[in-house]
């Protein structure tokens, strides 16, 4: 054997063996020292290394001035045959760290998540639909160029009008105003053929109908949803219109228009609402590139009419908002570059509102229905700036680390983030009073004082929803911004900046839950609003992590009460779509075991004495049984929290969005 030591005598062989043993001991000591310094989480028993978030070595240090992608997770979602990467800011990465923490301390072997790829041929999900009372098989007008689907469950013109009318009171006012209502209605009338008995296909019309079908059906009890869901969950209602719109968009790839971009942005809304997050991310990429193709990154020419200039600005900032939202939610790099100057922010003046194509009364002094969009964009700008500063800093993660290095680095990172909180306070102060959701008992709007919201009577639903969603978005973004300090590798020291930010995170999650619960029980403003459900799921999992990490915190009781409210929220949503019912059951099971889990932790931590040479409050510097009791200490099931995230966010089969794919596969197999 090449390179093997040669020993001619027994004495020499014994000396060589002793020397090798010493070298092995030295290497083991060095490995232990590196693991201690980096505070890396060991992989749970029986887990696959590919599922974990340690950064991949590039064979050397990065070039000067370049940053390394650190953290995140690589895993294979349910019904997927390929791995997917989510960054460290995502809920998936947070739940994986929480699951790792519990699995390591419980010392039990179980799979980190289920791998059950599902295809159309396995479950026959894509059979041709049959006509029913609430829908019909329509043979729609198709362009001669071809291959646009002409059969499927499409709406009658009267049914289309119902869903299109929903758009102006919901997504148009409470998401982003990127469609000129007057021009759209003229366009819709121009599509009529056969004496007004049918219409030509239009990508924009079909996508608007699809997202409104998804929204409206998700607000109805499951037993009343009828044929429009085709026996599937409400979150894929409207898939035939969505799919036809996608087919039509392929003809516009080489010659995009403003309508093309409008369609891409609305498709992002539809796929996000259906929990197809990788599809959403891919379509978002198309939207970004299309915006650059159309020159929207440049301030509009002064030769254009003012209404066209404002529409182009609103489109650009809608791209910015959704790119920011997708990047922070999934933990992936932003696709839209912030290194160059951008167009002016869209105007919310009375003149801009009057020329927007929609007629809504002014909501207050110097505030119109467009003000919601303007202040939402400003909020995302402030949060994205703070987010970028936090995750770009060198002290946060070092080579080979997936979490904090030490308390000094942790507190340094907290100082960076806290420096940006002033911009959020200034944003709150800048929101017009007419856009703020009032609080009961003299509470402050856009605060975490835990006072209940006040729903004003005789206020248009679109304005109530704007107020509600503006505050909802503020708390949701704050939860995600401060969540890195709920860290399971290094608990923040008492009274440190890092602990303060962890408490802020919990306060915003509690407030979001209270607002969502109040709105659902006393109004219909959030019925069918998928984003509210996903934000609630994000908040409740964050609160579970906070309680486990800070069982004796002054916020623990409020956090536990918020978890109970979240269960009620999920039950409310769960009556309309099944993924929420699943979330309710998961949260209920966790809540039932949480108290049992925490009792021995609290009693042992209270009686524990940490040596002075150990880092204060470091969970991993304490003995295993001091941090979490072993599984045989209480009768509770193992918490496979990562499975829960996968079950909630990847419950759908992506093929359901492409209704004739099954037939295409069959044809290919025959060929």
UniProtKB/TrEMBL annotation:
One of its GO terms (molecular function) is DNA-binding transcription factor activity, RNA polymerase II-specific. InterPro entries: Fungal_SecMet_Regulators, XnlR_reg_dom. Residues 34-60 are annotated as: Disordered. Keywords: Nucleus, Transcription, Transcription regulation. Residues 280-352 form the Xylanolytic transcriptional activator regulatory domain. It comes from the Eukaryota. Coiled coil: none annotated. It holds the Pfam family Fungal_trans. Residues 37-51 have a biased composition (Polar residues). This is Xylanolytic transcriptional activator regulatory domain-containing protein. It comes from Penicillium daleae.
